[in-house]
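Posting for a labmate who doesn't have an account.
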Amino acid sequence: MLQSNPKSLNVLILILEWQELNRFFKVLKSLLSKLHAKNVTLLHVISEELKRHSEPFPLSKKTEKKPSKNVKIIYEMLSKELELELKYTKILSHNISHILHHIEEIEQGHDLLIQSGFHEIETAELIAENSLIPVLTIKRESDFKKFLVCTDGSHYANKAVEYSTKIAKIFNAEITLLSVARDENEVEKRKHALESGEKIFKELSFKNYKIELRRGRVSDTIINESAKYDLVILGPRGLSKIKKIIMGHISLNVLKKSSTNVLLVR
């Protein structure tokens, strides 16, 4: 859960897409400056096929001959401009299984994981599914002023509502609290879910919000609505493998198919 004092926030940044690093960096500058992150750890993954490079895959063809210098510049800029205590970790692995196997150890001491999701969405999905802390997947540049927060009234959803409220205060953002009823039988349940969300807003003295009740397929409705927002926030239920096969996983489906940034809160 986001700490009450945002200045104590410890952020883990996972970089998987070096070809999009400049684009990712623009978003990071805005995010980290507003979050007032105290410590930032940058973790990059190098595949076996890129071992021949002394540093991660070059940012562009123009920098191919000097990848290490350009990567170093990025880190120095991030550290200097935001005045952050910067840590740098490198994991050499031929696939993502190494990260997943050590996810608890890697995330220890961090409050938020930020990863890029411009292209490597399947990898980003695996990280988000197995992470033990909130995961923000960046899929496009935005000013983070409009949040779509999804709720079904569950404990997981209410945690996401609480977390989103604290983030919204930092970014001075507006929240749309959305609940989706699959059919008429679920309408009353979803109304109660929205009431629970509103109660959390009031407890946290947050007034910049509106509520919406929709009918339809949950993941499809959220995905369609999310295009209007800078960030969509959900609280994953943590379904078993069998339930995922039968029902699918709404939050991961949104992460995979939505065109906007996605924050999964645990």
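Reply:
Got it, the structure tokens are right above this. The chain has two domains: 6-138, 146-264.
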